[in-house]
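Folding problem:
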Amino acid sequence: MTSHQERELLDDVSILLKSVDGTFDPQRIAPDAHLLSLTLGSLQLLEFLNRLEERFSISIPDEDLVVDRFSTLEKIVAYVAARQAATGGGR
């Protein structure tokens, strides 16, 4: 994945987070900041994961539903990129 693709994916993920939590401001949150302690509650995280699946046409298996896997923007972007690569998806 190029840095441009990674940046686009980060932007897309940030837009989804903003749609789930209107207070989320990607300009104020570092990509490695722990989202659950800063902005998302557990129910919002579940809604966000559902939207991730829909937006990126990926499936998140139950065994991947580990909070730490989705705790930062960096981890979310890496996970989505890996799922897309595994399924041959992507932009």
